[in-house]
Amino acid sequence: MLPAVLQLSEERRSVFGPGGRLSPLREPFEFYPTPPEATRALLWVEAGDGGVWEPACGQGHIAKVLEAEGYDVTATDLVDHGYGRAGVDFLEQRLPRARHIVTNPPYGRGLADAFVRKALAFTAHTGGRVAMLLNIQSLCHPDRHASFVRRPPSVIYALDQCHCLPGGDARRATRRSYEHRYVWCLWEPETVPVTATRLQWLSTAPFTNVAIAKRNTQMKKGSLK
Ligand SMILES: C[S@@+](CC[C@H](N)C(=O)[O-])C[C@H]1O[C@@H](n2cnc3c(N)ncnc32)[C@H](O)[C@@H]1O
Predict the structure, then answer these.
(1) What residues flank ligand 1, with Cβ below 6 Å?
(2) pLDDT tens sequence across 8-55
């Protein structure tokens, strides 16, 4: 089912095309939700003070994990996926809605690049950090080389397992859905000089719902201290 679109600018309509698809094989509005373990893993290694804006919140897969960890989250999206405030085109916003920005942005047709640029412009004012879940292939590209060199992330977390499936529905996943590899890219506030990017490997396995449920059961039985 197509999500309800509240309002779309001319520019956004021309990017997304009929049914909100960048191409017939892509999901409407690039809706590929983030499995919660990817965000839990990030919060295991990173923390911040101040509110967080999830500007492409979808069904709240990232926002809910942030909230569960005690963050004050402002969740918005271009379209209504049933979570957060809909009808907010991030790329057309003029004012930041929180100090930090964390999202898995829409990809394709330069959308993710535009999200990164916009997020860095906002946090230049708020003094916050930016965390974006990106396809690792997108880091190695002639069109992005200069911008990464000019404004390098402070750290890139290479996730071992993270599958952002079409509409979050495993039944519609294809072989390609499982071939994508993801990283969290973190940018510091503009005032913090970053000359080299740290690369760190991060496993999502300890943060899946199954792993957490298993740990809880073991704790209840007293076999885990
Ligand atoms: C890859 S999905 C990720 C959803 C959510 N961030 C998550 O991680 O589960 C991309 C999301 O971007 C939203 N989106 C696309 N273009 C947007 C725009 N210009 N402004 C705000 N949200 C947008 C889509 O509706 C979709 O929910």
Answers:
(1) 12, 29-34, 55-58, 61-62, 77-79, 81, 89-91, 103-104, 106
(2) 888 888 888 878 999 888 999 999 999 999 999 999 999 989 999 999
Task: Give the number of C-alpha atoms closer than 13 A to the C-alpha of residue 224, restricted to the C-beta side.
Answer: 9
Q: Which residues contact 101 (CB under 8 A, 6 or more apart)?
A: 52, 53, 54, 55, 119, 122, 123, 128, 129, 130, 131
pTM above 0.85, yes or no: yes
Give the pLDDT confidence of 163-184 residue by residue, as tens digits.
999 999 999 999 999 999 999 9
Reduced to 3 states, what is the DSSP secondary structure of residue 61?
helix
Angle at alpha carbon of residue 18, lines to 17 and 22, rounded to 5°: 45
- Domains plus CATH for the chain? 4-223 (3.40.50.150)
183 three-state secondary structure? strand
